[in-house]
């Protein structure tokens, strides 16, 4: 930093980062150094949040080279020189491992970057480390604690370390951003794994439409539901990150059904809620909230009405609200997807199938099976070829009940801009649909647990969801910085 200038880098936004870069008040090297110092002080010492699994040894060199680029007049965009943390199930072709938190893959180095990582590097982002996570993205055991992995240990919620649930599976990605260990992070979601930890850690998380962001190079659970997405302290920062990672990837056919690349920032400041209609499923989303949670959610709904929006109370949004949730689709797709991914792992790792993972865990029970592996075992009983009538019927039923007879139907019938729900309640239905949602801080409960509201829409409705979330964020201002 320039002499006589003292910058408060906690909670700093992308716009302010780029402003200080341009003015010469700050360099990427200094910003990376700041975050590494915080990680040293608070992630492995002090409260020991344990959100960062691995540091990129090249981070400082990359930051310095990007500073040189800027000095020579080449600025790649709003992520140029910005430090970012990547979830540990996303491939990076550098000196960091990709393990999904499993000791079975603790020595695995990916051969190439995931498509989204390649996009981030092209945009000038500095990947400073890998985030700890719930092992196998929380598809290992029924009683797996949120944020626990055999390789990385337990991630803690910075708002109540060891007391409050950090949620998951993108636990480290959320806790690191809440703790100001990086400017941005990438999480992944199959069902709730971006939205819920974002809510519990008082940050913003965007779960995009399946296909908007490539999944190639990401350790999978479900081809039907998996997606990566941005996590940030502010909606605008998350939207900028989403712009950077979207794009068509020949290795992920789902990306070619997405609309042409668009800006989520354009028109954001002029957006309004006037005349917009927002649906709420009363029975499913509201009636089970406790007094404080209901009060916070009611306050959020009132804010939307005060901004000119209209709240529409619905009896139900999807028939699945009346049915018990199941893992049938995930159990079948996990084995198929994981076996394919592991076929690309170097043979020296000696893990090339789900069966190998299970056997490794059995042979290393003390370290690997503190919480069992029922989901791995159940998935391994499937044929792995996705031909089972039970699987095919379950998949088609999920899509019909969540899309045609669910979200699409109620949005069209009620002329809705979005559906609103409290955190940790309704995420499973848009997850099965493959539809987008964004989680925004809305307050705290009586125990100090952060709360959020989630805006959900039909396929590829990210822009209008981001606009609604941005207005809500700006008017409510419920993001509270962590103080260690």
TrEMBL record:
A Pfam family of this chain: Amidase
Boundaries of every Amidase domain copy: 30-465
Alphabetical list of NCBIfam families matching this protein: PRK06828.1 (NF005300)
The protein's name in its UniProt record: Amidase
Taxonomic lineage from the root: Bacteria, Bacillati, Bacillota, Bacilli, Bacillales
